[in-house]
Amino acid sequence: MHELSFAENIVEIIHKSVPRDELEDVRIIRLKIGTLSGVVADSLDFCFSAISAETPLANARLEIEQIPFSVQCNSCQKTFANDIGIVVCPECGGVDTNVVAGRELQVTEIELDDKKEKTS
Amino acid sequence: MSIITVERKVLEKNDEIAGRNRALFLSKQIFVINLVSSPGSGKTSILERTLEYFNHRVKLAVIEGDVQTDFDAQRIARYDTPVVQIVTNGGCHLEAKLVEDALVNLDLDGVKLLIIENVGNLVCPSNYDLGEALKVVVASTTEGDDKPLKYPGMFQHASALIINKVDLLPYLNCDLNALKKNALSINPALKVFETSCTTKSGIPEWCSWLEQNLSTS
Description:
heterodimer, A: 120 residues, hypothetical protein PF0899 fold, three-stranded mixed β-sheet, B: 217 residues, alpha/beta, Rossmann fold, 22% strand
């Protein structure tokens, strides 16, 4: 259950990125999660809700963009994708390949409700 | 609505501490292995055979990670080797901070090789850099030949695979060639060893590889 540890790290990143008096205006935290990052999105979502409840981040939610695992073959230059992490090229059998996506574990954006808009 | 662009790795704090650990290991010229596997694959037995093989010719130290108990540290201490036990109290993996804290209690004087035995788990430890030079994954024959396909993350991050308990192959439905083929489809660069901690087969090959890495690091 390492998603709890990830959720704690996300809260810490929010605290570093948003001024303290604006924490309660945070609505959406956008993340990129690779399909081979070992993170279960639902589980991360649950852990984040659990640790942000009754805090200034109670109204914030995660928006997770899943990034498919994809690999480029350096022999035939084809790009291929699969869900299980195979890196051997299905076209030419080449093993000289690079993983180009699918391991991401990143906070990309934080969206805040603008106070000024609320009062006007 | 206003949007703050962040672009930060979720585990940036862990990576920062792992970087500090790595710098410390480099300054002391210690080669560090992060040993990972599912529970019961024989990580501690492989460590015991490794300590026997080197027999103090190369000075080793060990960090043990477990959810509970210091049983593994007790086993290693019998070999007159510096060892620290990290008890995670439910935590499913080691993090760089736990290793940094454990290093305070470990005598690294003259140590050339530090092996960190991670918590038995094929999922979570793959995300956490501890500051090691290499990850080594153990898969035992009793676990079946499809483990690399079920837990690709761990096999992708490893530099070497130890297939342990090969002495049991005659009694199991585990296809050794399929196990190797599956692992190499996930990571073609894996260096593969076949060991038995009972018969000690494969232990010299594994230890020679370790020693080569020591001399080139």
